[in-house]
Amino acid sequence: MYPSKFDYYRAGSVSEALSLMQQHEDAKLLAGGHSLVPVMNLRLATPPVLIDIGRIGDLKGISSVGGSVKIGPLTTHAMIEASADVPALMSQAASGIADPQVRNRGTIGGNIAHADPASDWPTVLTALGATINIAGSNGERSVGATDFFQGLFETSLEENEIITSISVPSHGEGTGSSYAKLFHPASGYAIVGAAAVITMSGGQCTGASVAVGGLTECATKAPSVEAALTGKALNEATIAAAADAVAGDLTGDILSDFQTSAAYRKAMVKVYVKRAVSAAAGI
Amino acid sequence: MTVNISVTINGTTYQKDVEPRTLLVHFIRDTLGLTGTNIGCDTVQCGACTIHMDGMAIKSCATLAVQADGSQITTIEGLAKDGELHPMQQAFWDNHGLQCGYCTPGMIMAATKLVENNPGITEEEIRHGLEGNLCRCTGYANIVKSIKAAAQAMGGGA
Ligand SMILES: Cc1cc2nc3c(=O)[nH]c(=O)nc-3n(C[C@H](O)[C@H](O)[C@H](O)COP(=O)(O)OP(=O)(O)OC[C@H]3O[C@@H](n4cnc5c(N)ncnc54)[C@H](O)[C@@H]3O)c2cc1C
Ligand code: FES
Ligand code: FES
Predict the structure, then answer these.
(1) Is residue B158 a part of any domain in this protein?
(2) Best of A9, A44, A101, A104 to disrupt the B interface by mutation (most B CBs within 10 Å)?
(3) N or C terminus: fewer CB in 10 A for chain A?
(4) CA A34, CA A45: separation in Å to the nearest integer?
C-alpha cells in the first residue's frame, strides 16, 4: 500500500508554511508522518498537497522559560522521553507511546493536531494546563488545552493554522505528576488514560489537576475528582473515593468497539485515575 | 510531480527523482534493489521495515522517501563489515534467533540500536524495546536470548 498522488512542498520557516497553505487549498502539513502516512497508505486521507514542516529547526526542541517549559511541535516523543526538563508525567507518558521506532519519528505537535481519542498527549496536556500556541494568516493566538481538544479527531485549529509551540507550567515544590494508561494490547494506544498533577503540603492535597482520555471523544478534565481530592489528607481510601467520582465527569458518548465495551472502559477509568493520583501524590 | 533526493545508504550516495508518494521502504527495495528490508504489515505495527536513519531506528513504511532526503541510512545489508557479521547478526545465528527469517532484518536493526543506546540492557528492557517488532514464528525466547548474547559481545550486557 502507498498513498495516492500528491504534490510536495518543503517549508523552510513558519511564514513559508503559512504562505504555502494559502496557495494550496486542502493542503496538509507533514511533520513526522506517523499518523498521516499510515492513513494515506490506507487511502483514508488523500490530500492533494503535502507541506513538509519537518525541517523547520525553530519548531523542534525543549527550553525552559521562567516558570514554564516550551516544547516545539516537532519535538519527538523520544526527545521528550529523554528530557529532564519536562514534568515527570511527560517523559513517563512518552515512554509508553508505541515503540522506539515510532517515538523516534512521531512528534507531539502532529499528535495533538491529529487528536486521536486514543492518543496520550491530549490527556497529559489537559491535566498539565498546557497552552497551545498557534500561528495563522491572521497572526498568532494561544489556546488552553481544554479548549483546543474539541472532539473525535477535532481541534480548534482553523484552516491554514500551524502549532508553533506548546507551553507547560513547570512543577513547583511539592508537586508530583503521573500518567496511568491501560494499553491496547496490540496497538499500544490508550483504551483508558489518566493523568494527574498533585500538590501536597504537610500530607494534605493543596492542588489537584486530573484529566482522562481514551474512553471519551476527546481528553477531558475531571473536576469532581479534583474537588474530592483538594483539601483532603490523601490515603488509599480518600484517593479511591475521589477516583470513583470520575463517573460524574464523563460527559458525552463513551467509546466502545468490538474489543472494549463502554462498560469496561467506565469500570477501568476509576482504577487508572486511582493509580495516576496515587503515583503523583507518592502514596 | 517528482522530487530529486539524495540519500546515502550503506555508504553509497544515491541521487534519484522520486514521486512524493514513494515510501522510503519502496525506494530502498524497488528503486535501489536492496530487498533485505521487508514489508510485513503496511500498518506500521510489525517492524519488518526497520532501518537506521541518521543514527536512529525507524520504520521505513511510515516515512516518505522525500523525508529521507539528505539523510544517512543503514539497512541490514550494511551491517556486516569486511565480510564479518555484526555481533547482533552473529548472535541471532548462534542462538537460533530466527525461524522463517521474515522479521529478522527488522529485529536486528531494532536490536542493534537498543543495545547501542543501552549497553547494560536487561531482559525486561529488551522485551519492552521490541514492542514495535512482531515475530510469528519464534515466540521471542531465542530472539531475546540472541540480543542478550549480542549485548555481551558488544561490550555490555546485564
Ligand atoms: C504503530 C503506531 C502506534 C502508535 N501508538 C500511539 C500511542 O500509543 N499513543 C499515542 O499518543 N500515539 C500513538 N501513535 C501516534 C504517533 O504518536 C504519531 O506520531 C503522532 O500522532 C503524529 O505525529 P507526527 O509527527 O507523525 O504527525 P503527522 O502524521 O506528520 O501529522 C499528523 C496530523 O497533524 C498535522 N500537523 C502536524 N504538525 C502540525 C503542526 N505543527 N501544526 C498543525 N498541524 C500539524 C498534520 O497535518 C496531520 O493532519 C502511534 C502511531 C503508530 C504508527
Ligand atoms: S512494514 Fe513497516 S511496520 Fe510493518
Ligand atoms: S522468524 Fe518468522 S516471523 Fe520471526
Answers:
(1) no
(2) A101
(3) N
(4) 13
Whether ipTM > 0.85 holds is: yes
- Residue A222 resides in a domain: yes
Which pTM value belongs to this model?
Answer: 0.97
Residues B20 and B70 in one domain: yes
Ligand 2 centroid to B9 CA: how many Å? 19
d(CA A242, CA B98): 50
pLDDT tens digits, B76-123: 999 999 999 999 999 999 999 999 999 999 999 999 999 999 999 999
Kindly give the residue spans of alpha helices, DSSP state H, lying in chain A: 14-23, 36-41, 77-82, 88-95, 100-105, 108-114, 121-128, 145-148, 223-229, 236-244, 262-281
Cell digits of residue A174:
511539592
Task: For residue A22, report the distance from its CA to the centre of ligand 2, in Å.
Answer: 34
C-alpha cell at B66: 522525500
Choose one of B38, B55, B77: the last residue of a domain. B77
Domain with B127 in it:
87-153
Total domains present in chain A: 3
A59 Cβ contact partners less than 8 Å away, ≥ 6 residues apart: A14, A53, A72, A73, A74, A109, A164, A165
How many Cα neighbours within 13 Å face the side chain of B89?
Answer: 13
pLDDT per residue rounded down to tens, chain A (283 residues) = 899 999 999 999 999 999 999 999 999 999 999 999 999 999 999 999 999 999 999 999 999 988 999 999 999 999 999 999 999 999 999 999 999 999 999 999 999 999 999 999 999 999 999 999 999 998 999 999 999 999 999 999 999 999 999 999 999 899 999 999 999 988 899 999 999 999 999 889 999 999 999 999 999 999 999 999 999 999 999 999 999 999 999 988 999 998 899 999 999 999 999 999 999 999 9
Atom 1 in ligand 2: which residue has the minimum CA distance? B39
Q: Which residue of A33, A50, A100 is in closest CB contact with B129? A: A100
Chain A residue at shortest CA distance from B55: A104
Phi, psi (deg, nearest 5) at residue B22: -65, 120
* CATH number of the structural domain spanning residue B135: 1.10.150.120
Q: Are B62 and A31 in contact (CB under 8 A)?
A: no
Is A107 found in the same domain as A26?
A: no
